[in-house]
Design a protein that fits this description.
The complex is a heterodimer. Chain A is mainly β. In chain A, 0% of the residues lie in helices and 53% in strands. In chain A, the strands form 2 sheets. In chain A, strands 2, 4, 5, 6, 9, 10 and 11 form a 7-stranded mixed beta sheet that branches. In chain A, strands 1-3-8-7 form a 4-stranded antiparallel beta sheet, with no helix packed on it. Chain A is globular, with a radius of gyration of 14 Å. Chain B is mainly β. In chain B, 0% of the residues lie in helices and 57% in strands. In chain B, strand 9 and strand 10 form a beta hairpin. At the A-B interface, strand 5 and strand 9 of A face strand 5 of B.
Chain lengths: 116, 111
């Protein structure tokens, strides 16, 4: 398996532009997570899905952020409009979640977003 | 609420043991984890421990769990330069899917 795939790996955009980050989870996994990592705030959980349904979006910073999971093999995180403070590394992770499983999360390589 | 705390930095001499500590708040945690993040990469699971265990050993790694004090530690024996990374402590919270991560401890190795 190729692991969790994220695209693009790097994105540089100007303030006010729309940014779309993409994620393909590992086949067979039923949970998907979006995280943001910055030096100042560390690793933050933005939103997670179980079986394509958003379960907890309390970490989404503002209405400018939205996430979708139209099917089990694809998810997007959109920022519209983007601001310089959104600059960070965004990670997607997936897992097979069950109550009797240790639920290892597999992380993608991340998308480094720079908003000028 | 659920929270995981760990120190931000640790510096050790090559060949010495490294001990990274973590405290958590959720007494109902079932699994606790250590993830490793190397520069420019995502996090990778290093090891985990089930809450009914006190200790788990895997080659150079030893995990100690004190449930009474809600304290977790990771000991790396004979620390090597390749161990330089950020180490994240994490717990599985009340949701079966969600994992709560600490802020990460940056381990640096000096010669």
């Amino acid at each position: 398996d190729a692991g969790v795939i994220q695209s693009p790996r790097h994105e540089v955009t100007e303030m006010g532009q729309e940014v779309t980050l993409r994620c393909k989870p590992i086949s067979g996994h039923n949970s998907l997570f979006w995280y943001r990592q910055t030096m100042m705030r560390g690793l933050e959980l933005l939103i997670y899905f179980n079986n394509n349904v958003p379960i907890d979006d309390s970490g989404m910073p503002e209405d400018r952020f939205s996430a979708k999971m139209p099917n089990a093999s694809f998810s997007t995180l959109k920022i519209q409009p983007s601001e310089p403070r959104d600059s960070a590394v965004y990670f997607c992770a997936s897992s097979f979640s069950g109550t009797r499983s240790y639920n290892e999360q597999f992380f993608g390589p991340g998308t480094r977003l720079t908003v000028l | 609420g659920e929270d995981v705390e760990q120190s931000l930095f640790l510096s050790v001499r090559e060949g010495d043991s490294s001990v990274i500590n973590c405290t958590y708040t959720d007494s109902s945690s079932t699994y606790l984890y250590w993830y490793k993040q190397e520069p420019g990469a995502g996090l990778q699971l290093l090891t985990y421990i089930f809450s009914n265990m006190d200790m788990k050993q895997d080659q150079r790694l030893t995990v100690l769990l004190n449930k009474k004090d809600k304290h977790l530690s990771l000991r790396i024996a004979d620390t090597q330069t390749g161990d330089s990374a950020i180490y994240f402590c994490a717990e599985r919270g009340s949701s079966a899917s969600k994992i709560i991560f600490g802020s990460g401890t940056r381990l640096s190795i000096r010669p």
